[in-house]
Amino acid sequence: MQILGLRFGFRNIKTGVSVFLCILISFLLQRETYVVTCITAIFTIRDDHVNTVRYGKHRIMGNTFGAIASMICIFIFKTFGQSKPVQLVAIPLVIMLIIALLARFDYHEGTVGACATLLTILFMIPSYDSYHYAFNRVIDSIIGMFIAIAVNRILPTPETCEKASADAPSAEID
Fold first, then answer.
1. What stretches of the chain adopt beta strand conformation (E)?
2. Closest Cα partner for 38 from 24, 57, 52?
């Protein structure tokens, strides 16, 4: 579909529908924010259902590993302090651990999300709220992933449209 010379393909439309549903469901469930839910849906939507499910799993695992890793860093900071030397050693080592673990369990595509989750929790969220935020980030990711999978499963793909068109009886004029 083209509007004003801009192409809006199936994946684009599915992404827009997913973001709409993420915001709506976040409002209905009274979530604190819909940012992570929407970002997860945007990153999860792929050209087909199989890749959408695969990437969604990677995204969830990445956010989960990042949230757990942030708790490990917080424990390290509470034990050894948050001095610059402690941060210089702990954060890179924990990031390396995340990368190695995600690779070990074959969730490579969750690496960026895991590291972003870790760093966001450590540096953007007040320390008194970090555990709560970590838990909510994983929950919001799960919501976004399920919305993306459902939208990608329910809405048509170019292949299903072509198949339906090919299977439809042709209208003959007598």
1. 2-3, 6-7
2. 24
